[in-house]
Specification:
The protein is built from 12 helices and 18 strands. By secondary structure, it is α+β, with helices and mostly antiparallel strands. The chain has 2 domains: 311 residues, 3-Layer(aba) Sandwich (Rossmann fold); 106 residues, no CATH class. The chain has a 7-stranded antiparallel sheet with strand order 2-1-6-7-8-9-10. Strand 8 and strand 9 form a beta hairpin.
């Protein structure tokens, strides 16, 4: 599970910001909104939040925070095969940051062991990389990698706790690649849990999930769970039909003509078209099939979320979603968040972090005060990230939505009077 995520000098984020999912000492929603992971003996107990919501003005940096974690994941998972510029973009409104590296770091908890992993990089190369482990509560420096100033050479520091062929991993790591990724490619078992958290447990949705995974769920024994999910959300769908149709040979030939002769194209028998339909019960009791493309935007979005929600809750994933509220009624957003706060539905330690403009859910009945975060654009055009708890809102009594919209917490757009100094026509 995720404990903290920090980033610096990435897009609108200039100075280091840190999103923390560590629960404070408050006992609000203790049984529903807080995870209490099992830790080794004599290691100080920890309480971690099941969810967090990001609020703020448009262009305040909410999406950039989520994108920073996505870029970290992408660099790590694709590092060994990377042959182009690394996908980092520094803060561009200061000369001091244009050529400086961007930094990304997570603190995660895996099987009772806390890990702190991060790196800094420019588009050309990795500048630093580090991994610390805390198996017994004390720091173990598994490895550190630092670019020597004025050179293209790295200085490595290894711990005896990191077993394996470290020299080979070191010599095989390119300047634009991560040591962790390289070591995994060369069969490091010790580093595998950290890598697998990024590859298997962390799921990030920046522009909306497509229906592919939910369709796959409807083709096996998870179909009933998808239907239950849709029906619980008050969508009058009685059944889901997934039909596979073979693509006609003339269409296959047209597809092949778009690629070079060397490109590997699936055999014709493997090229299929997926047809998705929803079954609705008519007044006479008959089943009427509706093409899913003709369903409402909200229905389509909930269906796309059904698979990731079901799988994420079952396997303890950490989900990051940008603009969760798009096409959804406020009650549906509460419905989605509620799964992660449920002791029945969320028994695997799944977590949800999402950005939203939906203030109707900014409610102490749904969230603890330490679960609410704000992104704000400063006068210097950089992003500031801060928690609601900085303002010490009154427990259970303060109307968070009203206070936010009135400007008490900041992170609101400054809208000027259009009748003054603006000639639109």
């Amino acid at each position: 599970m995720l404990i903290t995520f920090s980033t610096e000098n990435f897009r609108s984020i200039r100075e280091e910001v840190c999103l923390s999912l560590v629960a404070n000492s408050s006992k609000e929603h203790e049984e529903t909104n807080v995870l209490r992971p099992t830790l080794p003996p004599r290691v100080k107990s920890m309480r971690v939040l099941r969810s967090a919501a990001l609020y703020g003005q448009n262009a305040g940096g909410k999406s950039n925070l989520i994108q920073a974690l996505r870029v970290m994941q992408k660099i790590l998972l694709r590092s060994r095969d990377h042959r182009s510029a690394l996908p980092v973009t520094p803060f561009k409104f200061s000369e001091d940051t244009l050529d400086a590296p961007s930094m990304f770091e997570v603190v995660i908890l895996l099987d009772g062991v806390r890990y702190q992993y991060g790196f800094s990089a420019t588009r050309q190369q990795i500048h630093e990389e580090w991994l610390f482990a805390f198996p017994k509560g004390r720091t173990q420096t598994w490895f550190k990698r630092e670019l020597r100033p004025g050179t293209n050479e790295y200085e490595y520091t290894f711990s005896a706790h990191l077993i394996g062929n470290k020299q080979t991993w070191k010599e095989s790591t390119r300047p634009d690649a991560l040591f962790l990724s390289t070591a995994i490619q060369l069969n490091s078992e010790k580093l595998l849990p950290v890598y697998q958290w990024f590859s298997d447990k962390l799921h990030i949705c920046e522009e909306g999930w497509g229906p592919k995974f939910s369709i796959e769920c409807c083709q096996d024994d998870r179909k009933d769970k998808v239907l239950n999910f849709l029906q619980a959300a008050d969508f009058a769908i009685s059944d889901i039909y997934v039909n596979e149709k073979k693509v006609p040979s003339d269409v296959v030939q047209k597809i092949k003509s778009l690629f070079s002769p060397e490109a590997k194209i699936h055999e014709e028998s493997e090229i299929k078209q997926i047809e998705l339909k929803a079954g609705h019960q008519s007044n006479s009791g008959e089943m009427v099939e509706i093409d899913f493309n003709n369903e409402s935007g909200g229905t389509q979005k909930i269906f796309c979320l059904a698979g990731p929600w079901i799988e994420g809750l079952a396997k303890g994933h950490t989900l990051f979603i940008d603009e969760l509220q798009t096409n959804l009624h406020p009650n549906l957003v509460k419905f989605l968040v509620g799964f992660f706060h449920s002791q029945v539905e969320n028994q695997s330690g799944a977590q949800l972090v999402f950005s939203t403009h939906e203030t109707n859910i900014l409610d102490q009945e749904l969230f603890r005060r330490d679960q609410i975060w704000f992104c704000e654009r400063s006068e210097m055009q950089d992003t500031r990230l801060f928690p609601l708890t900085d303002f010490s809102p009154r427990k259970k009594t303060e109307n968070l939505e009203q206070a936010y919209l009135s400007g008490r917490y900041g992170a609101l757009p400054y809208i000027r009077d259009i009748t003054q100094n603006f000639a639109l026509f």
